[in-house]
């Protein structure tokens, strides 16, 4: 009896293979052949799940955003707004190997999005969602802030900058340093 394969599970498995290739060889190393080999599939089998390389890349990029969103959505209310906001921000930062891998892959995709319209649309939608999330976080801590728009942009830039620094210079942008920067920012925001 042939093995029944869940198509969505297989697509996620292939996307994980894309991430491994990207982390090892960059996006230029991603091809149907290299991803199929990484996933333990034939190229023909891979094409059964993704008709084109562009479709494969878009799915792998979207999966990063979906995983982060799922973790953020799973956060329930904490004992106070600052704790809840901090927990949300922690899910966005590369504080462990899983989130580091996501950040490295995301950065590679956003760089490629400069020249790839399909990836650009995904990047823009994700950054718009991050900006909306930052608005929610600012409103949770300082709903009547007189400079709300500036504070949203500041938090958005802080998160984006910490992610970039952690990917580029993990020896300097340690989880401890990122946590201290976020704590200081949130304390200032709540004043």
From TrEMBL:
Where on the tree of life does the source sit, at the highest rank?
A: Bacteria
Which InterPro entries does the UniProt entry name for this protein?
Answer: BetI_C (IPR039538), DNA-bd_HTH_TetR-type_CS (IPR023772), Homeodomain-like_sf (IPR009057), HTH-type_TetR-like_transc_reg (IPR050109), HTH_TetR (IPR001647), Tet_transcr_reg_TetR-rel_C_sf (IPR036271)
Write down what this protein is called. TetR family transcriptional regulator
The record's keywords, sorted A to Z, are:
DNA-binding, Repressor, Transcription, Transcription regulation
The family database entries (PANTHER family) matched by this protein are listed as:
HTH-TYPE TRANSCRIPTIONAL REGULATOR PKSA, HTH-TYPE TRANSCRIPTIONAL REGULATOR RUTR
Q: Which residues form the HTH tetR-type domain?
A: 8-68
Keyword DNA-binding carried by entry: yes
Which species expresses this protein natively?
Answer: Streptacidiphilus pinicola
């Amino acid at each position: 009896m042939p093995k029944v394969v869940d198509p969505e599970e297989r697509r996620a498995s292939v996307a994980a293979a894309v991430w491994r290739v990207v982390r090892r060889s960059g996006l230029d190393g991603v091809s149907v052949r290299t991803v199929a080999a990484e996933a333990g599939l034939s190229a023909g089998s891979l094409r059964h799940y993704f008709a084109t390389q562009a479709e494969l890349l878009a799915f792998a990029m979207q999966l990063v955003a979906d995983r982060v969103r799922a973790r953020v959505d799973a956060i329930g209310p904490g004992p106070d707004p600052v704790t809840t906001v901090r927990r949300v921000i922690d899910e966005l930062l590369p504080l462990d190997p899983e989130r580091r891998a996501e950040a490295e892959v995301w950065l590679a995709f956003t760089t490629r999005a400069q020249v790839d319209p399909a990836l650009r649309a995904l990047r823009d939608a994700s950054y718009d969602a991050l900006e909306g999330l930052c608005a929610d976080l600012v409103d949770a801590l300082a709903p009547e802030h007189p400079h709300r728009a500036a504070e949203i942009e500041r938090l958005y830039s802080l998160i984006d900058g910490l992610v970039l620094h952690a990917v580029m210079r993990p020896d300097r942008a340690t989880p401890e340093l990122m946590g201290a920067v976020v704590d200081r920012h949130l304390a200032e925001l709540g004043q």
